[in-house]
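Q&A log
Question type: sequence-to-structure
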Amino acid sequence: MKANRNTIQVAIGVVLLFFVSAAVAFAEDESFRSKRWEILLGPQYTLAKNLGFDGGTTAKINDTWGFALQIGYNFNEHWNLAGSFSWSQPDYQAVVQPVQGTPGGPRSISGSIQMNTFGLNLTYHILKGPLTPYVEGNVSGTYINTDIAAGPPVIGCYWDPWFGQICGVTQPTKSDTFFSTGIGGGLRWDINKYVLLRGGVRYQWIDLSNTGVPGFTIFKIDVGFKF
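Response status: OK
Response body:
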């Protein structure tokens, strides 16, 4: 009788061990992020910013909608490394101060600027599960085209491969690429193994000439696809 009881206990132990091992294996198979590539895309909204420049010139960059794209790889449930691109074209108004000795007073100008940011993002997901807060940091370069003339119009001709010789007038504009960094965070939901949603906010600093390193607040909503 005692031998039978021992046999039953051993059998129960083996069965429990089997189910525990199966559950662990199932949990590993049900990983939502680990060892997966992903593509994120979606709108972003940048808040308005007032800037002051050397010489007394001031400018207001209006709030604006933009677009962002990110391609990354999840090394495990926590760490993701990605390349990113974002685009926006906000309007601005500026009061330009003349250099001392220049006739005339301040003048107002307005227009739009194109801002393209290429960067490398490192993200840490705090929880292993499908719903998790995250924090991120990035190192980037931001290309800015002010649409302000940088010289006289240029007249020239070129040979187009389909339409032959084309002549026209182009206007060079003031543009440059600036070093930028950012930090952010938000909430991520892996709906299943293939689709995710993410919402968050990022603060991006841009090392602009003649105005220091202003920061811009950006709100983001991303739809992602994993493979």
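Response note: Residues 36-226 form a domain with the Porin fold (CATH 2.40.160.20).
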